[in-house]
């Protein structure tokens, strides 16, 4: 097995309000939030991970991602303290991508410059829509005007590498509405746009009681195709199911996930995946509840899961990530990054080609355009 690139995910779990569609590990903030205690816990968590990995000698972080939750609730000084703590334990590569997620309803303008000074060089803004009615239906805490102000503020602070999250197939939305959101986003010329179809996640208020007039899958597909065509026309390349970027501005952190790279995950509910010298690939998940996470961070109970991925599950785990990429990945990454021989997937790849779901598989593993339409079925065909 070859050692893949290494990333770090930092989960910051609080939000001002829980959106009714959201099943991320996010918790409504009861002020005052224990920012300093949480950051202390993150660094203890990182120490514990590194200790079990022997410090990961010779390995360098290529990307860092502050996700949530709403990381922009954290004061810049605490973000700086995290990055400083990380740097004193593990090398961060020169020019590494360091992203922070921000919610337009939870931003103080002055914070943006301070995040940049702390070392953050990419911002991801949760816009969702530029239509006030849609924002209200989604239970967002911000208006379209606030979303625009947040983008202006980010750009004024010098964030030239900027992602805007948009959702489509919103309750009562039509194709023109979805296209209008794209058009408004393009007005800011961001380097990256994430375009997610609204998913009614089980267990969320929207999952239990779907809002009226959610577009069906055919309409959602038509919206996606129209938006994709418009984005292509103005030079945004779709490189993943939901991700579009200007050339060379792909989200490197996410590319590492999809390429079956390694990542440490610190913070409540964070997941990590590390390839070990003994050929095993270890998955770890941290305790989800922020309070219990902080209380148990010094003890083995900080881990909710810690186990090697069984060999028979590796083909599915690999494909679950790789096939999301429009161009897929080099075929030899499978054996290099899973440690298994190519035979472990060869027959199933041949079957997928016969169904028209994959093509040109000699040097790359990728879904055909037809396979992208049936991506879940294609990925599931690699379940052991
Ligand atoms: C973890 S959230 C963090 C961003 C930030 N908390 C916010 O909401 O502004 C990342 C993105 O996932 C997307 N998302 C969350 N729940 C979703 C759902 N049920 N369906 C589709 N996209 C979703 C949203 O676009 C959101 O901006
Ligand atoms: S702000 Fe983002 S993370 Fe928080 S509840 Fe809403 S979608 Fe989820």
List strands and helices in order, with pairings:
Blueprint: E1 6-12, E2 14-15, E3 27-28, H1 35-52, E4 60-68, H2 76-87, E5 91-102, H3 109-118, E6 122-128, H4 132-137, H5 144-156, E7 162-168, H6 175-186, E8 192-197, H7 205-208, H8 217-233, E9 237-240, E10 243-245, H9 252-258, E11 262-266, E12 271-275, E13 281-286, H10 290-296, E14 303-308, H11 314-322, E15 329-330, H12 332-338, H13 343-354, E16 364-365, H14 369-373, H15 375-380
Parallel strand pairs: 1-4, 1-11, 2-3, 4-5, 5-6, 6-7, 7-8
Antiparallel strand pairs: 8-10, 9-10, 12-13, 13-14, 15-16
Bound molecules: S-adenosylmethionine (SAM) and iron/sulfur cluster.
Q: How does CATH name the architecture of the largest domain?
A: Alpha-Beta Barrel
Q: Please mark out the parts with pLDDT under 50 across 5 or more consecutive residues, or reply none.
A: none
Structural shape: globular
Instruction: Provide the number of structural domains.
Output: 2
What is the number of E strands?
16
Structural class estimated from helices and strands: alpha/beta
CATH superfamily of the largest domain: Aldolase class I
Q: Which bin fits the share of residues in helices?
A: 25-40%
Q: Which CATH class of the largest domain?
A: Alpha Beta
CATH third-level topology of the largest domain:
TIM Barrel
């Amino acid at each position: 097995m070859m050692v893949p690139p290494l990333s770090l995910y930092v989960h910051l779990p609080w939000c001002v309000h829980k959106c009714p569609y959201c099943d991320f590990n996010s918790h409504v903030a009861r002020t005052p939030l224990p920012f300093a205690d949480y950051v202390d816990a993150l660094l203890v968590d990182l120490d514990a991970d590194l200790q079990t990995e022997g410090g990961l000698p010779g390995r360098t972080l290529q990307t860092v991602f502050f996700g949530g939750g709403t990381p922009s609730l954290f004061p810049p000084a605490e973000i700086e303290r995290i990055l400083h703590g990380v740097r004193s334990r593990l090398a961060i590569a020169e020019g590494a991508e360091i992203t922070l997620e921000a919610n337009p309803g939870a931003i103080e303008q002055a914070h943006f410059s301070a995040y940049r000074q702390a070392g953050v060089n990419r911002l991801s803004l949760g816009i969702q829509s530029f239509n006030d009615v849609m924002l209200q239906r989604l239970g967002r805490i911000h208006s379209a005007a606030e979303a625009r102000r947040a983008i202006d503020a980010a750009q004024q602070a010098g964030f030239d590498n900027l992602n805007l999250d948009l959702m489509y197939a919103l309750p009562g939305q039509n194709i023109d509405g979805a296209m209008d959101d794209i058009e408004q986003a393009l007005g800011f010329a961001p380097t990256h746009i994430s375009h997610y179809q609204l998913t009614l996640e089980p267990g969320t208020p929207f999952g239990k009681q779907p809002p009226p007039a959610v577009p069906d899958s055919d309409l959602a597909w038509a919206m996606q195709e129209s938006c994709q065509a418009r984005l292509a026309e103005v030079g945004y390349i779709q490189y993943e199911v939901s991700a579009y970027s200007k050339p060379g501005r792909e989200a490197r952190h996410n590319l590492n996930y999809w390429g079956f790279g390694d990542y440490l995950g610190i913070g409540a509910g964070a997941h990590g995946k590390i390839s070990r010298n003994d050929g095993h690939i270890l998955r770890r998940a941290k305790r989800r509840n922020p309070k219990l996470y902080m209380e148990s961070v010094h003890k083995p109970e900080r881990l909710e899961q810690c186990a090697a991925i069984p060999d028979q599950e590796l083909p599915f785990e690999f494909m679950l990530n790789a096939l999301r990429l429009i161009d897929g990945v080099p075929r030899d990454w499978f054996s290099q990054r899973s440690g298994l021989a190519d035979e472990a997937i060869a027959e199933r790849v041949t079957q997928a080609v016969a169904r028209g779901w994959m093509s040109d598989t000699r040097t790359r593993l990728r879904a055909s355009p037809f396979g992208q339409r049936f991506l879940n079925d294609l990925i599931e065909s690699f379940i052991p």
